[in-house]
Amino acid sequence: MKLKMDKIPDFILSKEEVDELKNISVRELINGRLFTRSFIAKQWSLGLFLAFFCFLYIGNHYKMEEQMRRIDSLNQELKSLRYEAITTSSELMYMSKQSEVLKQIKEKSLDLEELTEPPRRLKVKK
Question: Which phi-psi region, left, alpha or beta, contains residue 78 (left: φ > 0; alpha: ψ -120 to 50)?
Answer without folding.
Answer: alpha
